[in-house]
Amino acid sequence: MLLAVAAIRTLLPLRRPTWNTEHLRYIAGYAVPLIPYALGTFALGQIDRVLLYEMRSAEDAGLYSVVYNLAMMLPLAAAALQRGLLPDWFRLRNDGDLNGSDRLALQSFALVAGLGVLLLLCADETVYILADRRYAPAGALMWIIVAAYVLDDLGRFHARLIGFTRKMLWVSVVGLTAAVVNVLLNLWWIPLWGMAGAAWATLVSFLVSALLNRVCAVWILGQPAPPVRQFVPALLCVAIAAALRAVYIPGELQLGWLVTKLFTAALLLGVLYRIHSADKKALVR
Fold first, then answer.
1. d(CA 275, CA 103)
2. N or C of the chain: less Cβ packing under 10 Å?
């Protein structure tokens, strides 16, 4: 009761809210152009499952949905990391400390790549622990979706550069283009390869999104950004892990599990070294 009385007394002076027109105009100018981007993101996340259901079977759609949702652990972790770092990134960018903001971006991407490597190599264990062995056929494709989400994180960094210019229409153009690519590839590949076609369509569409965001941010809008070579070490770790997972079939050799774990440790150490070196050295543009 006392808390309720205190809350009422605190809120009563605010019973006549005032509208800040300039603030509302700023929000509208930033958010409204993102509506097509939101629709494109929704299409990227749902269309493959819908087409799997229509073109293949409900079983394929269900298997793919479970594994897709398990792979989403990576973008959820990346989103939490970005929310924590975003205020510092904007502060450094506003202060003109481009090296500082770029180092922060490279560090966060290396962390996401490290998580991706771990999840990518342990995809089968993740499916067995969090789902069931019955999902193993789709679990064999989880590494493709995880690799796609690593590329998605790279694309989101460059989308943030576009957002810094407040020209959000470019983000929507990229998002819709990637969605169209995803739909076309799904229509082409799902009848041929089923769930594998849907997974590869996701990977290609996120690659297109990352490339187009880079082109828009750096070449069209002229935003300073880390050179592509600065992202290569982390991407190389993911590529090696993906190649290892692509050729390795769980259960053939017990030694294979040990090799997988050793590669995981080595690649994560490489990513951690990349974080350290990015923190200590000035970026060369």
1. 9
2. N
Q: What is the pLDDT at residue 27?
A: 64
Radius of gyration of the chain from its Cα atoms, rounded to whole angstroms: 22
Instruction: Dig out the tokens for 168 from the structure.
Output: 């959000």
Count H helices and E strands in the chain, helices first: 13, 0
Q: How far is CA 263 from CA 44, 129, 179, 207, 211, in A?
A: 31, 21, 34, 25, 28
Q: What is the pLDDT of residues 244-262, one digit of tens each?
A: 777 765 554 455 666 666 6
Give the whole-angstrom CA distance, residue 102 versus residue 10. 43
User: What is the amino acid identity at position 83?
Assistant: R
Q: What contacts 150, CB < 8 A, 6 or more positions away?
A: 74, 112, 113, 116, 235, 238
Extents of the domains making up the chain: 32-280
Q: Are 189 and 201 in contact (CB under 8 A)?
A: yes
Any idea which residue has 């594994």 for tokens? 67
Ramachandran angles phi, psi of 96, nearest 5°: 80, 10
Give the pLDDT band of residue 39 (cuts 50, 70, 90): confident
| Backbone dihedral angles phi then psi of residue 252, each to the nearest 5 degrees | -70, -45
The pLDDT tens digits for 128-157 are 777 777 777 777 788 899 999 999 999 999
User: What's residue 209's pLDDT?
Assistant: 93
**Nearest-CA neighbor of 64 among 142, 143, 134?**
142
